[in-house]
Here is the input.
Amino acid sequence: FDKKTRDIASSVEGLISKRKQIWEIGLNVFRRLWWVILAGLMLFWASADPSVLNLFLLAISFIGRLLFAILFMVVQFGALFWFISRTRTVVVKPGDDKQVTFDDYWGQPALLKLVKQWISLLGDRDKFVEMGGQYINGLMLFGEPGTGKTLLAKAMAGEAGIAFMSVEGSGFRGMFWGMDTLKMMTFVKKARKLAREYGACIAYIDEIDAVG
Here is the structure.
């Protein structure tokens, strides 16, 4: 009796599980193809009545024009923001004619010695970190205009054999809210792309006090 009961119970459970699977499959098909079923019913209804067919065609035409207008506005505003978010950057890649090294930089030997120590870490920074050192992520050069800050940054990149990218701090300003953030994100994205391509990149912001 117990064996028969278990067999009946297992068969009932199997039947219930199969029905659940069939029901779930039907629901999934309906969720994915409900618009096809609805369109088929509307077409069948429209074919039976010419006035309904005309109304159906007018509705499709209106929806198509509305979607086209929305898409056109989105593309237009996207292109406008993309054009405004562009910043004027100067890129010097390894091997370019504009590349300079420490041999082209004259004056300030103490600063040059300190910068050379920092540049030496770029060549073997992984080993430096393994030894317990903390890698320097950036430097701030302070001085009067014309003292060679930009030239020193270019020489650092040329001496290390990496890419160099510079931008004016005022170039991050925008006439719309949020444009400064978008320009900064674009600048960082370009710097990361150059860093992946050439191993590292020096991103130099001239007159950074103009950003704030």
Q: What stands out?
A: The two ends are 85 Å apart (CA to CA). The first helix runs from residue 2 to 48. The chain has a mean pLDDT of 78. The domain at 86-210 is CATH 3.40.50.300 (Rossmann fold).
